[in-house]
Amino acid sequence: EPFFISLAILLEVYVKIHDMTQVALMTAVIIILGLIPPIPLAFVPVPIVLQNLGIMIAGIVLGPKRGTIAVGLFLLLALLGFPILSGGQAGPAVFVGPTAGYLIGWLLTPAFIASVNASAFMHHPGRQVVGTWIGAVLLVDILGSLWLIIGSGMSWLPAVMANLAFIPGDTLKVAVAVIVGQRVRIPRINRV
Ligand code: BTN
What we know:
Largest sheet: none
Helix content: 55-70%
Strand content: under 5%
Number of domains: 1
Number of strands: 0
Number of helices: 5
Bound molecules: biotin
Distance between the termini: 27 Å
Oligomer: single chain
Radius of gyration: 18 Å
Structural class: mainly alpha
């Protein structure tokens, strides 16, 4: 009996290390995508970035719980001042600046994707792409523009229009993230 108890403890430790490694690697992927320089736009103080591709991949590959931890760890490091946001941005000022709504949206993206894709109806490749798009693009853009309107005092029309500039690129990122998600099959041990 003590043998089986030790075995169970070892397995638990293994799962923990396995999960922590995946979360840390995903945070690293998000950071690396931030090294690609952002493209500033003239009409809105929010650039086109590649970093949100990493956020989408985190949600799709790791699921709502570990995905949120990976994104949360990334945002925490950025808040603490590590220059890991696109263009080397960091610090508390960014989290109340014009892009703050998007950053909150990033934290919620894994949960958004999971909830939109939860029903049996969504268990279909085409609908997964649409569901992921709603979770990772539509909901994030809504939060982003709401903050631009409420927090940054932009009027609603330019705030909403600005997001249209993000949609083509973000739609492409959803496609890439879904393809990556289909290829990266991570074994799931005892996990919700
Ligand atoms: C930051 O680095 O402060 C966050 C930038 C947020 C950019 C948003 S994410 C959704 C949309 N798609 C883009 O390519 N850019 C915006």
